[in-house]
Amino acid sequence: METAGLIGRRGVDGVRAADLIASGGIVLRPAYGSFEDTVRGLVDEMIANRCLPSVLREQATRAVVERETMQSTAIVEIGVAVPHARLEGVAGVVAAMAVSPTAVYYAMAGVPISIVVVVLSAPELVGDHLDTLASVSLMLQSADTRRNLEHASDSGAAARILRGRNGRGKTSLLRLAAGLSVPESGSIRWGGVPVREADGMARRLLYIAHASALKDDLSVAESLRFLARLHGRDDSIGALHAALDRVGMGARRDALVRTLSQGQRRRAALARLALEREASLWILDEPYDALDSDGIEAVNALLTEHLARGGSVLLTSHQAAGDSAPPMVGFDLDAFA
């Protein structure tokens, strides 16, 4: 199961339906099985994202399931459902979404429901509750929206690629996600905690900027060892040599960094990917830049292995990733200019 979401909650002031859902969490390819499991899973997602008190877990699940029994919210023609309830203890209005390329659960007569949004609100917020249901339903009636959501789930990818013209903020967004910059407003969170405060994030994050971060006066192997040690990765000779071999730099491991071509510098910097063994988050700024076809193939092989062990990737690229690239969901920042 893959989870994505920013953290927050909606009060009576109101926000867009998409922002509200992102606050509670979006679960791709869930393995829930039944309607009740789906509701409980999304309630757990809201709790994990600090949008709902944990003491409300069973009460919220029961309230949504009981209301659905009285009046189904499934729109079987388009395979979506917006089950909901109002109950004491909810702060404002909260929501979370589950998406599956096949079915999150099956409604009456075995009809697959592939998109589910659970909405919860405080009892007194009748108007906000109804407005939210209308907004979410309207959003899901868009065939393009449903297709994009199902594509993200069906891709099998935890890889996201940012595209856009120069100056659109791709690198700025990566730095925000890595906790290297602070947003002027709002927050970016890891496990419900602001990224700059999240325990263990440094261990589960690999950030490689557009600049190589290699030391000109060190050899390739020495520079890689310095970076590996700095970030707490395996810096043994065997691991370093194997990593350089993976990116086609084994024969140049003793060469000074200052003697490398731009493409070789990029390969050496990306050798850090081959030192990773955990299902972590990779944030990569233009990883394909200056690489030839063999270099692109090597990077794609490392990305594919990383995704297969449950890792995630957020990257930018101005150039094609090639036929060997793993499935990626693209976001065009030009659309937000």
**Number of structural domains:** 2
- Rg computed from alpha carbons, rounded to a whole number of angstroms: 23 Å
By DSSP, the count of extended strands is 16
Helix content: 25-40%
Strand content: 15-25%
Distance between the termini: 32 Å
What's the CATH topology name of the largest domain? Rossmann fold
* CATH architecture descriptor of the largest domain: 3-Layer(aba) Sandwich
Mean pLDDT: 85
The CATH homologous superfamily of the largest domain: P-loop containing nucleotide triphosphate hydrolases
Which oligomerization state do the chains in this entry correspond to? single chain
What gross morphology would you assign?
Answer: elongated
Uncertain runs = 1-15
Reported for the largest beta sheet, the result is: 7 strands, mixed
- Count, helices: 10
The CATH class label of the largest domain is Alpha Beta
H/E topology pattern: EHEHHEEEEEEEHHEHEEEHHHEHEE
Q: Helix- and strand-based class?
A: alpha/beta
Describe the structure.
This protein is of the alpha/beta class and 337 residues long. The protein folds into 2 domains: 153 residues, Mannitol-specific EII, Chain A; 178 residues, 3-Layer(aba) Sandwich (Rossmann fold). The protein contains 10 helices and 16 strands. The strands form 4 sheets. Strands 1, 2, 3, 4, 5, 6 and 9 form a 7-stranded mixed beta sheet that branches. Helix 2 packs antiparallel against helix 3. The longest helix has 16 residues. The chain is elongated, with a radius of gyration of 23 Å.
